[in-house]
Amino acid sequence: MGTRLEIKTRLNRVFREVFEDDSIEIFDAMTAKDIPEWDSLMHIILVVAVEKEFIVRLNAAEVGHLKNVSEMLDLLAERSCRGKQ
Amino acid sequence: MDFFSLKFFLYLLISLLIFYLSPPPYRAKYVFPAMNHVFLVSFSNGWASLLPLFIFLCAGFIAIQWIKKCQDSRIFILCVLVVTGIFVYLKKYTIFSFFPSMPYFYVTVGLSYILFRLLQILVDVHQGAIKEKISGIDFFNFTCNFLTFVSGPIQRYQEYQQQKSFLGGRVLSEGEVVGMFFRIIKGVMKTIVISGIFLNLHQYSLSGLRHVFESGAQWVLCRKYLLAALYYTLYLYYNFSGYMDMVIGIGGLFGARIPENFNKPFEATSFLGFWSRWHMTLSEWFKIYVFNPFLSLLVRQWDNPRWVPYYSVVAFFLTFFLMGIWHGSTAIFIIYGLFLGLGMSMNQLFDIQMRRYARVSYKKLISYEWVRTFSAALTYSYFSIGLSCLWLNFHELSHLWMKVKVSGFLMAWILGTGIISVVLWTFKIVKFSIRRLKEEFQVLLQNFYVAYAVMALQIFLIAVFWFQWLCNLPEFVYKGF
């Protein structure tokens, strides 16, 4: 999946596509409060888009407890390491 | 064991003493399970009355081990069905009344909450979110934790495991202990005094409603019904949130961190927002284990951008319909589920349409204080009408429906919205006017002697109301669910 920076770049692209906003620049502490359109529906659309982009499947607990972008990056980085092993 | 009993008070006192006199490593390992065991046994009248609950727990524990060992989706589904089936059977759901039930008394208190904890573990073990081995003691402590046994809150197994180290593992500061006592007193005050007052008002209004049930005109029935409904909502809120204050405070004395379950729900400006403030742990559970997976399934299957927003309308309906029917085992809770599902899905549909066709003006509109107040009142009024399913039986509700018809309920909703709008608006004006006074009052409350004087006053009020309502002491409403 790549380094954390690569993952962040790809994740940023997913965010821009999902929220249809090219000005979005994700940051570690970013939460749903930072994007007005990020509601429960958009959260799921985002998760499904992330799953497609990174070819992973997040479980219910992970989807429900992602607090910010940093946790999402950590999760994707962890899956990347697990994939390589 | 009732929370408002000398028995519970003694139980708590002895438990605290034994807990803190024991060496720290033994507290979570031996003392806490023993406390849970004693609490559980206090609801029984012999071993036989605990047997069904024991079988339910054993079935759940075996299911967890089986799912972990096999990692097979079919086995997972089978286990979920079996566990849910046992629950439905033990709760005596009326739709399965043709099935012979056990002909003796057995303990069902806390069963609904155990089901949530059990299903959470089953899903998380199946999906790999819980990897560690779950021991019998951990399983028992988590599912039958005396702090959350009767009416929740619904804690996740992972959070429970995280806080295990807190359980008597550190020395509480004097400030923390005092804070916990304040929280407990606040809880008792809310449950005995405030919810007691609203319970009496509700019962008075309800007897007035029943008095004119047969002969009353539509308008009279609507007015009396509405009053009973509005009072019941306040009664339920103070009863349940007071209970939560007590549980959080008592848990804190043992070093446990119990999650919050309420966050000023009547300030919510939509039905969607209301459920992120009311019975938060239940809403969170349904969001994670029903709403999200169901919505993900729809989005993955039919990724049509035009229809995707409407999937959430369907997902909200299903989620809240299930949440509604969880509240009870009789047919009236199907109506409650439909009512909740309809409220959530209509709210979401409205939100989607407004965002799509009038995004800017909608955003501007909801920023006005009067619109926010009106929306909060609309939400409160709708919720109050829905709660009728908790205090009217099926026969009474259908009779009322025949008498006042849809127009009567709509009239009650509109009238309720009007009354609550005025009340909320008045509160806001008073709050704004005394803002400065409130700040000074807060500073004053931080004063040691004033804080204790306020607590003493609360204890005095509790004592007065306790003796006043000795025969009609408010019970925990959610104990029955």
N→C terminal distance of chain A: 12 Å
String of helices and strands of chain B: HHHHHHHHHHHHHHHHHHH
Shape descriptor of chain B? globular
The overall strand count of chain A is 0
The percent of residues in helical segments of chain B reads: over 70%
Query: C-alpha Rg of chain A, in Å?
Result: 12 Å
Principal-axis shape of chain A equals globular
Low-confidence stretches of chain B: none
Structural commentary:
The complex is a heterodimer of chains A (85) and B (481). By secondary structure, chain A is mainly alpha-helical. Chain A has a single domain (4-84), classed as Non-ribosomal Peptide Synthetase Peptidyl Carrier Protein, Chain A, CATH 1.10.1200.10. Chain A is 61% helix and 0% strand. The mean pLDDT of chain A is 88. With 481 residues, chain B is an all-alpha fold. Chain B folds into two domains: 12-171, no CATH class; 177-445, no CATH class. Chain B contains 19 helices and no strands. In chain B, α4 packs antiparallel against α5 and α15 (369-386) packs antiparallel against α17. Chain B is globular and about 60 Å long. Chain B starts with 5 loop residues before the first helix and ends in a 13-residue tail after the last helix. Classes of the chains: A mainly alpha (85), B mainly alpha (481). The A-B interface holds A 40-41, 43-45, 47-48, 59-65 and B 123-124, 127-129, 156, 158, 284, 287-289, 291-293, 295-296, 299-300, 303, 308-309, 311-312, 348.
In a few lines, what is going on in this structure?
The complex is a heterodimer of chains A (85) and B (481). Chain A has 85 residues and is mainly α. Helices cover 61% and strands 0% of the residues of chain A.
How would you summarize the topology of this molecule?
The complex is a heterodimer of chains A (85) and B (481).
Chain A: H1 4-19, H2 40-54, H3 60-64, H4 69-84
Chain B: H1 6-21, H2 24-41, H3 47-70, H4 73-90, H5 111-126, H6 136-143, H7 157-163, H8 174-211, H9 218-253, H10 271-274, H11 280-301, H12 308-326, H13 332-357, H14 359-365, H15 369-386, H16 388-391, H17 394-433, H18 435-445, H19 448-468
Helix pairs in contact in B: 1-2, 3-4, 3-5, 4-5, 8-9, 8-19, 9-15, 9-17, 11-12, 12-13, 13-14, 15-17, 17-18
